[in-house]
UniProtKB/TrEMBL annotation:
Domain (Glycosyl transferase family) ranges: 60-235
Presence of keyword Protease: yes
Protein name: Transglycosylase domain-containing protein
Location of the Penicillin-binding protein transpeptidase domain: 346-583
Organism: Cytobacillus pseudoceanisediminis
């Protein structure tokens, strides 16, 4: 009885549905015709599919495939082989070129089966309907969804050519294991482009989308091979290939060569993704709005920015960076080699002096992607590493003093603040040079007091340290006393001023962002800021060189070329720093514990100096 009533429903509904479509279409001249109604309710302007984005190193090497939300590499219709198109049409929709988006006869057969089984077992979806489902809908099995699918399919057929619909379909469908579209599937399962596949391999891949879990070639290879052979037989029956060609295809050995997703240099890539957000925020006006917004508005703006970034990523972009793979590997390897101590961590940032580009970032020992990246996320007290930036360069600039001028290195007290030299040592009058290279504390505090705290910070502010606040404007800052401190990347970036005649420009990892066709989308346009004069820079460079040659950084000496820098040790031996430069690079190295603790036991080993030397050697 149920079967008989089902057939009656089908007989009644199908003609009515068909007549409705054609009848209302004929009334298109009325106030609001069927097509106008569809255009209003189902707005389809441009159909695009989310694609994979890429991050490239400075040498052009792809170092990361960013396949969120999907791993897809779209092909144009001309790049999809006619044979592959034949396979999908034969397997999925033999009347593809004849229908208007849905196959009435197929729907009738499916309805009969579904009503008889009291379930939705068959969908009778055309290629156009499947495309509509993949782009606009979900895979819920319901008659409401099915009706929406029919309407979207009809609209797609009105707006797009059959060739375009087939192209989008072959690019949209899921091939399991994260691969969407034939090109991503070809690269995943065979490590080659779809244009290089044999016909047997094309048929093998075409077997997957019908039921990606069942025909997953990694887990159920035999199932996939059996369906491939059934597809080949179908092609033979339709006389699209000869019996001889069919047998040859079926007998061809299919051997998977599974490609691992490219995801190299996690320390650097993690930072690039953070810088990507900053770049888009600046270029599209979000940053200015966020700076002025209240807490509630900030949350809303951040959500909008996240959505905008997702939209850009889905288009498929190429992020070209300045990464130097050799330097990156040296930095990461050195951290692991020099920091064998339990719970002791480290970070390093390397910047090209001439281009102001970040060429390497090491975020910690054995760093895993998206872990806490100490190179740009760890704000720590800088110790004496701040002295060249906050004390000595401003002092030389404001007083025109010479490096051999005298300074009092004896005890100092002001308003209850009484700093000590390292180890409680007491000195008398000494030269600025000696006070710098041996990192005496009381002279540094005196110098900042002489020029005025605000004058020192006026210079320091030009480097854009994110967590330096008004509370830090105190004499204790002269020897590294800050509320939050700086990151290794921030300090390294600031020190590039000593390699560029007193001019500062923010260091960036991203050179430019393009779409997949090479069209420029975003790039930085930072300008240089003059912080100090060349005379001041020459004096500080001289002092930093002497620090490496015979001062606190002797273990960082290099056999040839200029090398200069400044060490830093914080109270309680919690942090060890060395920030220094050569003719080509500036690097900042930090060593410490994530939860600050005493490291006096490894002080004599000077791991921060050895790591810096490892990176800068050769």
């Amino acid at each position: 009885m149920r079967s008989w009533s089902g057939f009656m429903i089908i007989i009644l509904l199908l003609p009515i549905f068909s007549l409705l479509v054609f009848a209302v279409s004929a009334e298109s001249q009325k106030v609001q015709g069927f097509h106008e109604l569809l255009d209003e309710k189902l707005e389809i302007k441009e159909v695009s599919l989310p694609q994979t984005s890429y991050i490239k190193a400075g040498n052009g090497q792809v170092i990361s495939e960013m396949d969120h939300p999907v791993n897809r590499i779209s092909l144009s219709s001309g790049d999809i082989s006619p044979f592959l198109k034949d396979v999908f049409i034969t397997a999925e929709d033999q009347h593809f070129y004849d229908h208007a988006g849905f196959d009435v006869a197929a729907i009738g057969r499916a309805l009969a089966i579904n009503i008889q089984s009291d379930d939705i077992e068959q969908g009778a979806s055309t290629i156009t309907q499947q495309l509509a489902r993949n782009i606009f809908l979900n895979h819920e099995q319901s008659y409401n969804r099915k009706l929406s699918e029919l309407l979207y399919a009809y609209e797609l057929e009105r707006k797009l050519s059959k060739e375009k619909i087939l192209e989008l379909y072959i690019n949209a469908i899921y091939f399991h294991n994260g691969a969407y579209g034939i090109e991503a599937a070809s690269q995943l399962y065979f490590k080659k482009s779809a244009k290089d596949l044999t016909k047997a391999q094309e048929a093998f891949l075409a077997a997957i989308p019908n039921n990606p879990s069942l025909y997953d070639p990694m887990k159920h290879f035999n199932h996939t091979k059996e369906r491939q052979e059934r597809l080949i037989d179908q092609l033979k029956e339709e006389q699209l290939i000869s019996p001889k060609e069919a047998e040859k295809m079926k007998s061809e050995r299919i051997q998977l060569q599974v490609k691992q997703r490219i995801d190299l240099y996690p320390d650097y890539v993690s930072y690039v993704e953070a810088e990507l957000r900053e770049l888009i925020s600046v270029k599209e006006g979000y940053q200015d709005k966020l700076l002025k917004a209240g807490e509630q508005e900030k949350a809303s703006l951040s959500a909008k920015l996240d959505k905008r970034i997702s939209q850009i990523m889905e288009q498929g972009i190429i992020i070209e960076t300045a990464l130097n793979p050799a330097l990156q590997e040296k930095a990461a390897n050195s951290l692991n080699k020099r920091l064998s101590y339990k719970d002791v961590e480290g970070a390093a940032a390397v910047i090209d002096n001439g281009s102001h580009e970040i060429t390497a970032l090491a975020g910690g020992k054995n760093y895993k992607k998206y872990n806490f990246n100490r190179a740009f996320q760890a704000y720590r007290q800088p110790g004496s590493a701040i002295k060249p930036l906050l004390v000595y360069a401003p002092y030389f600039e404001h007083t025109s003093a010479a490096i051999h001028d005298q300074v009092n290195a004896g005890p100092f007290c002001k308003n209850g603040y009484c700093p000590q030299n390292y180890g409680g040592a007491r000195y008398g009058s000494t030269t600025l040079e000696k006070a710098f290279i041996y990192s005496y504390n009381t002279p540094a505090v005196r110098l900042l007091d002489d020029i005025g705290i605000e004058n020192g910070f006026r210079d320091l502010d030009k480097f854009g340290f994110k967590k330096v606040t008004d509370k830090d404007h105190a004499l204790s800052a002269a020897i590294g006393g800050f509320t939050y401190g700086m990151t290794p990347l921030e300090l390294a970036s600031a020190y590039t001023v000593f390699a560029n005649d007193g001019y500062y420009q923010p260091a960036r990892a991203i050179r430019k962002i393009t779409n997949l066709k090479g069209k420029l989308l975003y790039s930085w346009d930072d300008s240089k800021t003059q912080v100090w004069s060349e005379k001041t820079i020459e004096k500080v460079r001289n002092l930093m060189a002497r620090t490496v040659q015979s001062g606190t950084a002797r273990k960082a000496r290099l056999p040839i070329g200029y090398a200069g820098g400044k060490t830093g040790t914080t109270n309680g031996y919690h942090d060890f720093w060395f920030v220094g430069l050569t003719g080509q690079y500036t690097a900042g190295v930090w060593v410490g514990k994530d939860r600050p603790g005493n490291l006096a036991s490894i002080e004599s080993a000077s791991p921060q100096l050895l790591i810096w030397k490892d990176i800068m050697s050769d």
